[in-house]
Amino acid sequence: MDRGVDANASSGHVLIVCTGNICRSPYIERVLAQELAGTGVTVASAGTGALVGAPIDPQSASRLESVGADAKGFAAQPVTRELVAGADLVITATRDHLSQVVPLHPRALRYGFALHDLGDLLAAVTPAEIDAAKGDNHVARVAAAAIAKRGVVNPRLPKDSGVVDPYRQPPQVFDQMVVEISTSLPAVVKALRG
Fold it and tell me: Reduced to 3 DSSP states, what percent helix, strand and coil does the chain have, rounded to the nearest 5?
């Protein structure tokens, strides 16, 4: 993926990253894609330890279907330098995932965030700040506006900064995952919708 091509073809590209790319990141990807339909923003996901080719975990898939999002046609893929370089915004399930993504493409430090951190930063960003931020497209401007709030918005404690990993856990842990995602995703959606 080439950043320039994406910038000309759309309003930007978002990459979501977790571990296996079958529970958290595809859930966020599909909900975000549904919320951003018609905006020109594209959304994909990958995993730091992807179960390559696997479909979305049935527990995550059922929760996607319950919110009207499509769980079909998905295959887990590994996060690569090309995927990270081709994104305008990288959202990870945890800070640890971000620490694994940035070495693949160090510039991602400028546009990569753990979901809860991004939600907190964007809750403090105004539409005017997004419009005034530098970037090749709307998604890049959202990332730049969020970066500008680092050092202004107090970061969460580490224990509160990540989305729980429900892999091979009971259904209630998947429910907890959905609740945790839903606390931060609305601020992200609002900023990306413009």
Answer: 50, 10, 35
